[in-house]
Amino acid sequence: MVNKRVMLPVEEVDVSAVKYEREVVKAPHLTGFTLKLFVWMLEAPLIGSLITSVVKRKNRIPELLRHTVIPETPMFRPEFPPQEVEPVVMIMDEDSEPRARLETALGCLPPHDPRHRLNNTSRNSFLYWTIRDFAHAYRSKLTTPSIVAEDIISAIGDSNNQIPPMPLLIAFDPEELRKQAAASTRRFEEGNPLSILDGIFVAIKDDIDCYPYPTKGATTWFHEIRPVREDAVCVSRLRSCGVVFIGKANMHELGLGVTGNNPNYGTTRNPHSVDRYTGGSSSGPAALVASGLCSAALGTDGGGSIRIPSSLCGVVGLKTTYGRTTMQGTLCDAGTVEVVAPIAATVEDIVLVYAAMLGASRSDRICLKPSAPCLPYLSSSESLDALRSLRLGKYTEWFTDVYSTDISNKCEDALNRLYDAYGCKTIEIVLPELQEMRVAHVVSIGSESACGLNPDYEDGKCSEFNHDTRTSLALFRSFSATDYVAAQRLRRRIMYYYMEVFKKVDVIVTPTTGMTAPLIPASSLKFGESNYEVAGYLMRFIIAANLLGLPAISVPVGHDKQGLPIGLQLIGRPWGEANILRLASAVEGCILFSMLKMFPLNEQKVVYSFI
């Protein structure tokens, strides 16, 4: 016998009476031989079922799903009510050519002054060359894409040979890079660059197709059963703008982890502290941008896989509304929580790459009915008025549920700076059923991942996965159809809570992660690591944007006492990328202004340098 729970219809819940429950993830921390032994037991016919049952029970999964009466009907994909057009924006035509959208995006940015960066040739620094800095340098003949390519090739060689090694890329061909850079250099010499992105170096996560490189998903075998014959649509759009692709960036195997650990190709290390994780699963893309090796990178995000590493590496990571950009040509193109989106060093670079790559698939336009994509004007007085009018929602008990108060304090400080500079008011909100949301997300992404991988798993590929991947798949394969449908009932229920909150506020603010970059155990390098407690801290605030399909962005706001980056997350209304980009740009400006006060301009160092 079990105790049946009966939930009230969501419209009848008294939100004011909701009490916050601290999240506690209960699972063993395993590395090395202990992890190997645990995986062997998990995959054993009888004992494996017993272990997964115990883990699920300790984490309340049966209680919140199978033992609960959930009155709402299932929502199998994010469904949004109609949204009003955001103020002071440029409406984009997603059917137009990427180069035309880039020209529109440039008109939304403030005037460009390259002197702060280009006149400073120092290395090992924190002010990155932006895309417009490179574009100015190419057009002013200060450098060429071919010269930059040689610097990148040298830096990648150095990163692989340093101790410990920094395995940033899974697939890298110096001659392919030289060929692309030479073609871009010729276009500049002839006075015919394709766009502002011509000659801009971008890395592609290894679950996104970028011809002629294979797509392995950081496995050792996936490319053997899924050959790549053309670019993913998002990559093709960037290529048409003259982007130079560095190669395929390292990642957590098949995206089924949030640390970036990968024994297959080596674990990518955090440029801010090489004994710590980058976060994942887009570990390589975030580390490449943070190292100054490229202006931007493409990642995928189904459970924080862009925002987590962006936060831990001190760069900007955008998660768009579900369906905003087609997933065609990616390994995770059939799920209900994933997006493909950019990582960059600055918000303006995010704006440019996003403008070039956006565009929903035909089927998503029919099913999701997306609002027209918009970009914020970032330089007009009307934009300042729009910024002042933004209402920020903060659930304080959730906001402060972090591993170290350094995180919540820095994020709170950023909100105070926004208020002082622009008058952005913070309003207290309550978001019920966070535990239910966590369970609904893990069952959704887990069931969808297991469904896609099951044919290969049953075909004997199970033993070729990493041990932590096998641990996750053992759990995911234990979910039933009943669990999955219950999770979709919860999705509809939780969507209601968020849409009600968005009647009162424009953006929800949280820390991006509940902890800064965790240490890499030496015992994890060969056989991997399973640490769901750390995963719980890293994923604490990011799940809503994936389960509900909402846009979100992580922007750096400082460092903890150990010098590790901290990110602030901004979650917007459906299709509301413009508002979060506008606010992220303002946060970035406040943080930069505080740095300028601490360090005079002539003392600052600039990154076109690497690592």
From TrEMBL:
InterPro entries, per database record? Amidase, Amidase_CS, Amidase_dom, AS_sf
Do you know which Pfam families this protein is assigned to?
Answer: Amidase (PF01425)
**Signal peptide per UniProt:** none
Any idea which GO molecular function terms this record carries? Answer: N-(long-chain-acyl)ethanolamine deacylase activity
The Amidase domain extends over 170-581
* GO terms of biological process kind: N-acylethanolamine metabolic process
Keywords carried by this UniProt record: Hydrolase
Q: Name one GO cellular component term.
A: membrane
Q: Give the family per the record.
A: Belongs to the amidase family.
**Name of the protein this chain belongs to:** Fatty acid amide hydrolase
Source organism per UniProt:
Acorus calamus (Sweet flag)
